[in-house]
Amino acid sequence: MKPTGTDPRILSLAAEVAKSPEQNVPVILLKLKEIINNTPLGSSELKKIKQDIYCYDLIQYCLLVLSQDCSRIQGGWTTVSQLTQILSHCCVGLEPGEDAEEFYSELLPSAAENFLVLGRRLQTCFINAAKGEEKDALLHFFEVVTDSLFWLLGGHVQLIQNVLQSDHFLHLLQTDNVQIGSTVLTMLQNILQINSGDLLRIEGKILHSILDEVVFKLLSTPSPVIRGTATKLLLLMAESHREILILLRLSACYKGLRSLLNKQEPGTEFSQELRQLIGLLSPKAYQEVKDEKRHKAACLIQAYWKGFQTRKRLKKLLSAVIILQRSFRSKRTKMLMKLSRQKEEEDHRLQLQIQRQRAMRLSREIRLSMLEIVHPGQVEKHNREIEEKSALIIQKHWKGYRERKNFRQQRPSLTEYKAAVILQRATLKFLAKCRKKKKLFAPWPGLRELTDARRIELKQQVDDYIRRHPGSQISDVTSRELHSQAQERLQHYFMGRALEERAQQHREALMAQISTNIEQLMKAPSLKEAEGKDPELFLSRSRPVAAKAKQAHLTTLKHIQAPWWKKLGEEAGDDIDVPKDELSVELGTLFIGGTKPP
User: Fold this and answer.
1) Of 108-112, 201-205, 318-322, where does mean pLDDT reach its minimum?
2) Residue 86 included in any domain
3) Phi/psi of residue 594, nearest 5 degrees
4) Does residue 224 lie within any of the structural domains?
5) Is the dihedral of CA 293, 294, 298, 301 positive or negative?
6) InterPro entries annotated for this entry (predicted)?
7) Among 69, 113, 105, which residue's Cα sits nearest to residue 87?
8) Domain CATH number, residue 85
9) Would residue 123 count as lying in a domain?
């Protein structure tokens, strides 16, 4: 998607690149340098220009030109070095937008790799060049390419790992030329100053190769420039990473490195860095490193132990979590039940309100219909009765409201009164219990001695009582007569009690029989449902009872079948005479109740 508001210079340049032949494209792309240099650094206009350059694929054109053979490019290495500057400046500070993934994963690594390839080509040309002026020009171009690469890595530090792992970079580092080697070491030092953490992320074999090359240049190169740069680089690597310091101190590949460093000339410019490096490789520093390593190991063991304890505690907390979940779910269920109950109550209240409205509407309709029925003269009386009833209802509600209000106002005093009563009762119980304990555990006072005056007083009281209640004197004959009378009365009582018990048992048997007969009559079928054997269950063996039942039955039939004019003078309680010949029937067929006939 092309951006809106594109710079016209970029538009014309993109159109010119698209229309021009392939050999003229590098020279046309050099115009981007003028556009970038004329724009203030760090401004929003510069960011917009870089986005336009990326959107119109001018950066991709620069990459394609850099991947070509330099001998076929118009302007040679001069054009190539300027294009590397343009490419690095365009990629740093660029916000790709929607194509961010393609920009960071494909374009940037490809640009860094092209810079390294150009560096190797320049290295080869520099070694093969014969003239001094040509070598100076090639060295200048090499420095421009390395500066462009460093500028690109400064803006995108994630490319440092790719550059350090590249074979082209390792070949550049392994050169024997002093000037090229110094430039590469300086670039490596600058890169590690930006982000030295990527040094440990590369493969161990590549890391060993870089260390070997740096140590080799430090010990075997006669140039003090390379030796100074290698010393600073090795010191930076050892100070930044303890792992590299341990590797230099313990690895068999670097055995004797400290003794070789001690043989270096002390009067050089880098003697201070050299002494620092020797101090790091000394046994004392090694002991500090070893102690730090032990400290890290102890921390690691503690971390594993604490992790084990934490996992063990978490396993035990599983039951607690289950309990918490159960309580939460029960609370949530209660809350949902409460909400549903409130909803049901609200629905019930609305239904009651609707029912009241319907009842009120119905009562009004009934009242209106009754007013239509009532005589016009009675309407005033009817209204007065309704008003009196309404007034009574209003008074009743008002009195109820007033009494409830008074009761609510008196409730605190009633509560206080009840509390006072309870406190008094408890206090009295406590005091009574205390007095009882006091009496129970009090010592026995003993008997008081009677004085002569007290004895005379007690004797006078006894004499007065005997005088007021004289005893009766009965002879032996009278006592025997009274005893015989008492024995007769007692015998008569026991005999009468036996007869009374038999009569009571008989009455209870009759009551049980009557209850059975009543229950049988209650469970008897109706006349429509009765079968042939059902009446036999209700035959009676008592002739007086059967006769009385027959008489009552015939009286009822006669009274029902008599004409109306015969009932004019009768009353409800009059008896009806029944002839005796009508009673001469078989009494065993009467419905009287009782047991079955034998």
Assistant:
1) 201-205
2) yes
3) 120, -155
4) yes
5) positive
6) ARM-type_fold, IQ_motif_EF-hand-BS, IQCB1, P-loop_NTPase
7) 113
8) 1.25.10.10
9) yes
